[in-house]
Design goal:
It contains two helices and four strands, in the order E-H-E-E-H-E. It is of the alpha/beta class. Strand 1, helix 1 and strand 2 form a beta-alpha-beta unit. Helix 1 packs antiparallel against helix 2. The chain starts with a strand and ends in an 11-residue tail after the last strand. Keywords: Isomerase.
Length: 114
């Protein structure tokens, strides 16, 4: 925990490596000091086929899945910091966005818990 899943258009990252994008998101999440360094997980999914607002505009969106318990202010600061680094990396992309979803502790399990 946490998981950051990046989804973006293939055209957007033609001149940037997926690893660089993931590293920037990782570093922004780590800088938030909300998570233990070894717990942060980042993945990326690149789409060739998509429609954005009725056309094929570039986009990048991050889905942040974190354990419940952070304040609204903490989540907003985290989201803003990640969007800022991506906006700086992709200044011409019309869509750079993120949302954060809370995992409930009830019902969550990983292998160390069984």
């Amino acid at each position: 925990m946490p998981h950051f899943i990046i989804e973006c258009s293939d055209n957007l990252i033609k001149n940037t490596s997926k690893q660089e994008v993931m590293q920037l998101v990782y570093e922004a999440a780590e800088a938030s000091e909300l998570f233990a360094k070894g717990d942060i997980k980042v993945r990326i999914k690149v789409y060739e086929d998509y429609i954005v607002g009725g056309k094929k505009d570039d986009f990048i969106h991050v889905f942040g899945n974190i354990m419940e318990g952070r304040t609204t202010e903490q989540k907003n600061k985290l989201s803003s910091s990640i969007v800022k680094v991506l906006k700086d990396l992709f200044p011409n992309s019309p869509i750079v966005s993120m949302n954060i979803r809370d995992f409930e502790k009830i019902g969550y399990c990983n292998k160390s818990m069984v």
